[in-house]
Structure formats: structure tokens, C-alpha cells
Design goal:
Layout lengths: L7 E4 L3 H13 L4 E4 L2 H9 L7 E5 L7 H11 L4 E6 L4 H11 L3 E4 L4 H60 L1 H19 L5 H13 L9 H9 L6 H8 L1 H12 L3 H8 L21 H14 L4 H10 L7 H12 L7 E5 L8 E2 L17 E6 L5
Parallel strand pairs: 1-2, 1-3, 3-4, 4-5
Antiparallel strand pairs: 6-8, 7-8
Length: 384
């Protein structure tokens, strides 16, 4: 028997034809169920416990002719291929069989053994492919239903999930948490400009919340140095930092539903001219939303004052950043919606006009006694 295929139903009122055909088909490795009575064959077709890969029927039979039988087969065994065999090479009859019985092939008696083998092999294969396609469509429909349920759940839990991530980042490093806050705020302004549809806005907001999560793979000191003194990173520290988009991607891929976001996050440190990381891709190879996230991250992480930073971003259009992202950034600037940035400063860097965003702390936990001890949470007035 041919492996993994259902039997062939053979119907012909001439027992000698059935005997020869059945023998030849069995010789080819097929299981065969045969009838000389077309009504009995219909009963076999209606048996829900039985399935056939192919129905091979003679045209000229008493009670039910081949066209009538194959029409029933089409209804009762929709995955079975239907093959008509007749002793008359009548084109009109063949067309009738094709149109009314939806037959797969038409054969004329006497048949050639080689042709018979080819036709039956094609019919059996088509049957398997048709059933597999049906099962895949049913599975896809079920998956779509499950996906809708999952999306609904994801939407319900998304605020909690992003909130937890932001809290985790702040706990790991106040500087990292603050930088993430600025990225989220700027991406929110991008979303308000009408550059993205609803789904794109959702993806960008999630990506903004999670883009720094990969940095928790590094030490706190390395993260701090990467923001304040990136030129002092060791080769190993720089390697860890440049891999953080990949770490975040892996984490979000594990969540399943966030896979589209992971692709954005992986590319959020790529540059328009190909000089970024981790993959060194450029221009249109960078996902569109990642281009906006890239600019938002640069704005949040760059430790220079607003006027100089705006100039530097505009000078980088077409090199580090896409012109579209820079245009969106300039719209945010014109609207006066750039998010305020909180910087970490030394005591001797405090200037008149700066506003404390919170208490002044030092690395040793007390009020700064040395001009070289660092303070946290100081908002530079130049950014407001």
C-alpha cells in the first residue's frame, strides 16, 4: 500500500474490468475498495467512518451513471479526487462530467498502464494536498481566533507590562529609567503628529518602553559610563552595550506577541548611513519605526544642551538619521513639545537657572561635600 494515503474507490458494473483495474492498482501499491453496483458504492461514500483518496468510476452504469455518482462523491467525499473512465471517447460526455461532477481526470478504455499509474498518482497527491490545505485553513482560522483573544489580553495587560518595565529600569539605574522616560515622551509626541496609523503608534510606544531593557545585562557602572563617558568604555564594556538591542530582541521574542516590537528594538541604534549597531544596516533596510526610535534615543542619551543638540540632530539628517524622522523632530521642536531632560551633574556644574527635579544626592548617600561628587535628578533649565 502507498504510505499515508487513503484507499481508492473503484466502481464499474463490469466485473472483469474491476478485476483487471483492481489488480493493476494493487500492483502499484494502492489499497482498493471496489464495487460493481453503483448504489452500493454510494453507501460506501456516505459512510462517515471511511475516507477515500480517489474515486474511479465508469460512466456507463445502470442505476447511477458515472457523472451522477461523482456528483455524490463530490458532496460526500470532498477531498477525494474524481476520475472518470469510459469506453467511449465522447467529448460532450467528458465536458458534462467535468462540469457536473468536477472530475479531476477523464480516461478512455482501453487504458494504458503507464498513463493509469500517472493519473492515479496525481489524483492521490491532489487529494492529500486538498485535505492538508483545508486543515491548514481550519487551523489558521482557529489561530486567528486565539490571536484575537491573545491581542485582547495583551491590550489589557500592556499598561501593566510597560509600567513594570519602566519601574524595573528605574530600580536598576535611575539614569537609565530617566532616559527611557524621555524616549517614551518624545515617541509619544511623534505619534501625535499623524505620521503613523493606530497599529504603528502602538508598536512605537511599546518599543520606546522596552528599548533599554537589554542594558540590564550590563553592570550599573557600565550603563552609567555608556551615557556619561562612552569614550571611556573598555572594549568588553562596549561589546556588551552594543549587544543590548539583541538582548532585548531575544527577551521580547520569548513573549511571542511582542515579536514585531523586537524587530524595531533590534534596529534602534542603527544609523541611516550604516554606521550603527548591531547589524550595520542602512537606509530603507532599517524598519521605519526604528528610525524614529533611533532619533528619540539619541536625543534622550546625548549629554549636551538643547540648542546645540537640535542643531546636531539637523546636521545629522541623511547621515545618522532619516530625513523623515528629523522632520518629525523639528515639528515637535516648533510646537514646543520636546520633553524635559534630567541630567546627572557634579556639584561644580550647577549653574544659575537650573531647577532641582528632586533632592541632591551623592554616590556616598550624603549631601555633596566635594565638588567632584555627583548629584542626581537635576533638570537643566536649558532643556525646558
Amino acid at each position: 500500500m502507498v504510505e499515508d494515503h487513503k484507499p481508492i474507490l473503484l466502481v464499474d458494473d463490469a466485473w472483469e474490468v474491476v478485476d483487471v483495474l483492481e489488480g493493476q492498482l494493487r500492483q502499484l501499491g494502492y489499497e482498493v475498495v471496489s464495487f460493481t453496483d453503483s448504489v452500493a458504492a454510494v453507501e460506501a461514500l456516505q459512510d462517515e467512518s471511511r475516507g477515500f483518496s480517489c474515486v474511479l468510476a465508469d460512466h456507463d452504469m445502470p442505476k447511477l451513471n458515472g457523472v451522477e455518482l461523482l456528483k455524490i462523491a463530490k458532496e460526500k467525499q470532498p477531498f477525494a479526487s474524481r476520475v472518470m473512465i469510459s469506453g467511449q471517447a465522447d467529448l460532450g460526455m467528458a465536458m458534462s462530467a467535468i462540469n457536473e461532477g468536477s472530475i479531476f481526470r477523464f480516461m478512455v478504455k482501453p487504458w494504458d498502464m503507464e498513463v493509469l499509474g500517472t493519473v492515479i498518482a496525481q489524483a492521490v497527491q491532489r487529494s492529500a494536498e486538498t485535505e492538508e490545505k483545508h486543515l491548514m485553513q481550519a487551523e489558521l482560522k482557529s489561530l486567528n481566533t486565539d490571536l484575537k483573544v491573545a491581542n485582547d489580553r495583551l491590550q489589557l495587560n500592556l499598561n501593566q507590562l510597560t509600567g513594570f518595565c519602566e519601574h524595573l529600569l528605574v530600580t536598576f539605574s535611575p539614569l537609565l529609567g530617566e532616559t527611557t522616560r524621555v524616549v517614551i515622551a518624545l515617541c509619544e509626541e511623534f505619534c501625535r503628529l499623524g505620521f503613523f496609523d493606530e497599529q504603528e503608534q502602538k508598536l512605537l510606544r511599546i518599543a520606546a518602553s522596552f528599548q533599554n531593557v537589554g542594558l540590564m545585562r550590563a553592570s550599573r557602572s557600565t550603563v552609567k559610563k555608556s551615557f556619561l563617558k562612552p569614550q571611556q568604555l573598555t572594549q568588553e564594556e562596549e561589546r556588551v552595550v552594543q549587544r543590548h538591542p539583541g538582548y532585548a530582541e531575544t527577551l521580547l521574542d520569548f513573549a511571542g506577541e511582542l515579536e514585531p516590537v523586537s524587530l524595531i528594538i533590534r534596529a534602534h541604534h542603527e544609523r541611516w548611513d550604516g554606521s550603527g549597531y548591531p547589524d550595520g544596516i542602512s537606509r530603507d533596510s532599517i524598519p521605519r519605526l526604528a528610525r524614529f526610535l533611533s532619533l528619540a534615543c539619541y536625543y534622550a542619551e546625548c549629554d549636551i544642551y538643547r540648542e546645540a543638540l537640535v542643531t546636531k540632530i539637523n546636521d545629522s539628517a541623511g547621515r545618522a538619521f532619516s530625513q523623515e524622522a528629523v522632520d518629525a523632530f523639528n515639528q515637535v521642536v516648533r510646537l514646543g513639545k520636546l520633553p524635559r531632560k534630567i541630567r546627572e551633574l557634579r556639584i561644580d556644574q550647577l549653574l544659575s537657572g537650573m531647577v532641582l527635579a528632586g533632592g541632591v544626592y551623592t554616590l556616598v548617600g550624603g549631601i555633596a561635600g566635594s565638588p567632584w561628587q555627583r548629584t542626581y535628578a537635576v533638570d537643566g533649565g536649558a532643556y525646558s
